[in-house]
User: Which sequence fits this backbone?
């Protein structure tokens, strides 16, 4: 297999989402779900200062969207690390599901031997696991794609961007003034960091932010 | 509510957050999954049909994997309750996935105080479920207490229907109107016509007020650990303001007659003064405290003001005037008649 070097980091991150889905027994994952997991992974990455690659998203009609993610998935399918597990056509739209191949599994196992990659794998897996927990919530409606969109729509950066009058809206997590980054920096000041288990401390905050997205959705849709 | 207040409220008040803050061995993500499944189970139709078959004690063990049945499946949980087995043995030790770790222990735990002690030596977090009420403990300390899981609403924590802790009087007034005066929610009369309260009514008022304040204070949370001390005859509610850690202390007292004792006449005044003196002690012992208030639920026959000893109050400038609520004992229909007569006279 051959992967273009500039896609290397992007490819790893996509593989980690698919690996998390595979280990969660869901096995396959839709294109939209994958996009949203990577979006949330990037949005919340300042919690642990994890350096991810997909940091720019356009505000699409189905939520934040990255062309780079789609291009990377296509490369991975061509390289045999990812397979298309299903295609549905609904109202002239194609909905594609992806699954990790055995080759992809081996690639992930090899990659996570490197500490930098293992850190990203842990982070993306944690975000995926939490998203999966909330997908079973009684108060979220629709299929899993709609449910994860419901959470993403409450992410502060996306909320603020959607309210702008500019025609072309986009989210860039590189910027320092991004609302979610500021909110994360704010709450981190209240944490007592005794450095006993830095990952655990990060997971505690990650859980808090997922609950934040969920409760804002309930407040908006269930309470009027 | 602004975003900063929202995230602080969630960080300090979400039950799953409290679980992981109290027990460092709990994995945050697995705990969240467990918490959600348990809540779904307890709000399921299967549980509602069988909730009187409790109480049940579920002990979450963080480091052992279970091989038994998954009791967090609502159908399995419902079957367990309806079988009547929980009337013989009601302790379930489970892992994060709700799977039983040990064979049934032939022990029956009937009250929260015993439940809090039972696993005090282990690293298990205890959920004592009695009807719709859940008390959560870790090594005897109270982690959280939800009086009615069916009415519990997490979204309140971030809604605009909340007030800052400095507006505590408004909040306590609202609690009195919504919960205490509405006797279907809080049952504190043993005999209404005789104005006789149940035993230890301060537990009823205090527990419910603590929960209410925790839900409806926008910029603070109730210190759950202080509720552990209620088993040792302490009935203060401590509210910590999120932004600066300042402390507000509320002491609960009742007056009148209960099943076990009586505070009337001079005894009532002594009781109020004793409550104030306790408050002075608590305030002086806590460097972060900035406000203390005595809350009195008055079940005496006559609705008379109580003259407290101002000198005790003046021992600390942070102590505010006591707040007294007179408990009405008339039924809804009597109250309706009274109001109708009053309106027709006008």
Assistant:
């Amino acid at each position: 297999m051959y992967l273009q070097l500039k896609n290397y980091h992007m490819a790893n991150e996509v593989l980690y989402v698919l690996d998390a889905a595979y280990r969660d027994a869901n096995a396959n994952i839709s294109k939209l779900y994958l996009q949203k997991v990577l979006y949330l992974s990037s949005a919340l990455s300042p919690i642990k200062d994890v350096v991810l690659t997909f940091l720019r998203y356009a505000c699409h009609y189905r939520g934040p969207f990255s062309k780079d993610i789609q291009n990377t998935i296509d490369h991975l399918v061509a390289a045999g690390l990812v397979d298309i597990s299903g295609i549905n056509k609904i109202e002239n739209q194609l909905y594609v599901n992806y699954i990790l191949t055995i080759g992809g599994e081996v690639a992930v196992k090899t990659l996570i031997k490197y500490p930098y990659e293992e850190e990203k794998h842990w982070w993306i897996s944690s975000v995926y696991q939490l998203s999966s927990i909330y997908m079973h919530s009684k108060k979220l409606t629709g299929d899993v794609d709609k449910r994860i969109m419901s959470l993403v729509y409450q992410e502060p950066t996306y909320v603020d961007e959607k309210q702008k009058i500019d025609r072309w809206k986009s989210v860039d997590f590189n910027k320092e003034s991004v609302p979610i980054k500021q909110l994360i920096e704010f709450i981190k000041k209240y944490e007592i960091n005794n450095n006993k288990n830095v990952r655990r401390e990060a997971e505690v905050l990650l859980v808090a932010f997922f609950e934040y997205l969920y409760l804002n959705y309930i407040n908006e849709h269930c309470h009027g | 509510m602004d975003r900063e207040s929202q995230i602080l409220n969630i960080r300090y008040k979400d039950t799953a957050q409290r679980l992981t803050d109290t027990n460092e061995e709990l994995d945050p993500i697995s705990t969240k999954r467990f918490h959600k499944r348990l809540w779904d189970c307890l709000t399921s139709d299967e549980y509602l049909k069988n909730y009187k078959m409790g109480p049940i004690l579920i002990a979450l063990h963080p480091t052992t994997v279970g091989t038994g049945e998954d009791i967090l499946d609502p159908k399995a949980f419902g079957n367990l309750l309806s079988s009547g087995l929980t009337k013989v043995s009601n302790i379930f030790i489970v892992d994060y996935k709700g799977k039983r770790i040990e064979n049934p222990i032939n022990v029956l735990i009937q009250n929260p105080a015993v439940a809090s002690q039972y696993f005090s030596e282990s690293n298990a977090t205890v959920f004592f479920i009695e009807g719709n009420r859940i008390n959560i403990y870790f090594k005897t300390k109270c982690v959280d207490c939800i009086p009615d899981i069916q009415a519990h609403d997490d979204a309140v924590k971030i809604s605009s229907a909340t007030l800052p802790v400095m507006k505590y009087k408004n909040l306590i007034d609202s609690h009195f109107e919504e919960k205490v005066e509405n006797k279907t929610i809080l049952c504190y009369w043993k005999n209404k016509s005789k104005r006789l309260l149940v035993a230890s009514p301060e537990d009823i008022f205090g527990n419910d007020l603590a929960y209410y304040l925790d839900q409806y204070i926008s910029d603070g949370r109730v210190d759950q650990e202080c509720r552990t001390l209620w088993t040792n005859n302490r009935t203060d509610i401590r509210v910590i303001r999120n932004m600066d850690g300042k402390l507000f202390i509320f002491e609960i007292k009742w007056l009148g007659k209960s099943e076990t004792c009586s505070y009337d006449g001079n005894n009532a005044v002594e009781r109020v003064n004793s409550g104030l003196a306790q408050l002075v002690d608590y305030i002086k012992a806590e460097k972060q405290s900035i406000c203390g208030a005595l809350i009195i639920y008055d079940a005496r026959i006559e609705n008379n003001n109580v003259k407290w000893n101002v000198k005790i109050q003046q021992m600390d400038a942070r102590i505010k005037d006591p707040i007294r609520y007179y408990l009405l004992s008339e039924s809804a229909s009597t109250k309706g008649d009274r109001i109708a007569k009053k309106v027709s006279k006008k």
